[in-house]
Amino acid sequence: MTRDNRPPEFGNARLTVMAFAILVVAIVALAFITTINRVDVRTAATDPVPGTTGLARPHPPLQRAPGEATRAPTQ
Questions:
Q1: pLDDT, tens digit, for every residue of 4-24?
Q2: Where are the domains of the chain?
Q3: For labeling, which of 22, 43, 52, 75 is most exposed (least CB within 10 Å)?
Q4: Is the pTM of this model over 0.70?
């Protein structure tokens, strides 16, 4: 309270808070629209590309034949 027992005037403070709230809502809405506009909504196909064997990456050739026994390291 002020010295003359009247409540202080908050007219400009309410206007400032309302303007700030409207500005924040507008910025959030524009950011949301911009983000949604740039998102690619295509989905990945589950069919493999023709000519692939399904391996994720090529592997180096084996040092031994598939039926050959492993060699123990010599010390």
A1: 777 767 668 888 899 999 999
A2: 9-40
A3: 75
A4: no
Maximum separation of any 2 CA atoms in the chain, in Å: 103
* Structure-token match 């590309």, residue found: 49
Rg value, the chain, Cα:
35
54 touches 48 (CB < 8 A)? yes
Count of residues for the chain? 75
Residues with Cβ within 8 Å of residue 48, at least 6 apart in sequence: 54
Instruction: Report the pLDDT value the prediction gives residue 21, as an integer from 0 to 100.
Output: 96
Residue-by-residue DSSP string for 18-46:
HHHHHHHHHHHHHHHHHHHHH-------S
